[in-house]
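User: Hello! I'm new to structural biology and keep hearing that structure can be predicted from sequence alone. Could you demonstrate with Helix-turn-helix domain-containing protein? Please show me the input and the output so I can see what each looks like.

Assistant: Of course. The first part below is the input, the amino acid sequence of Helix-turn-helix domain-containing protein. The second part is the output, the predicted structure written as tokens.
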Amino acid sequence: MNPDHYEFTLAINLIPEEQDLSVLFSGEGRPLPGHTIGPSVHDFYLIHTVLEGGGLFECGTFTAECRAGDTFVIIPGSLFSYKADLDNPWHYAWVALQGIGVLDLLRAVGITKDQPFIRSGGGNAAELHSLYEHIRLAFKQSAYPRLESLEASGWARLLLHRFGRDNLSALPPNPSGMPEMIDRQIDQAIRWITLQYHQQISIDHLASSLGYHRVHLSKAFKQRTGLSPKQFLLRIRMDKARELLGSTLTIEQVASSVGFNDALYFSKQFRKATGMPPSEFRAVLRNGNEKDTGGSNI
């Protein structure tokens, strides 16, 4: 038991190896009235959510009176302090994070160095409490600490998602001039084609799946990319084919890998796009004459 707390629980990650986001430790506590941390700095991200009671959080010039459901975040290198209320000291849960992707993830849910706080209704405290418990309980001191670390990172991402839902008004605005829904659908179409180019993609089916007529989708798609969906698909396939032709795959295997069931038709399209058949392109690659491979005519 921590002498400054009525209750104190802590779980530590033995192998915080994930590069993007990794949980270092997570805990929960009920400090004594007036219990104070800081002024201090940390070299990791430390997130607290108030479950009951209240207290004061200060970070740089930012100050907030916290109550149940509120979350405050300590950014590495920032001078901070926080103090439990004298009459109704807080009960809070916390998680420490590190990783090259943490700052961007926090920004995505509306948390920044200048606004390291989410004001939320107390009604969400129980759901947030459950997520913190899942993070902490992931560290079961089993024989598989790497699996524990992966599980904790997953729960931490769900926690950040919940913060974003509670903080919608602070989220970055839609950067595109297009209407938000069609903008989102074009993003989805681009990702769909980029990831599924090896499949037999029907542009009609793609448009229908996204809830748009083919003509409407094609027009919006071309405004964004400069290409029609069909042209974009062909460019993705040809770019991937160029890459695969540097491998040991046969021409037929390359064709199949980029979505062509007919190797002859693939060769025709490849020659149209690059100015040479796949076999010649491969020979040029093997001879190290990449400057002669030509550009796309799509």
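User: So the tokens describe the shape?

Assistant: Right, they're a compact way of writing down the 3D structure. Reading them back into a model, for example: The longest strand covers residues 22-31.
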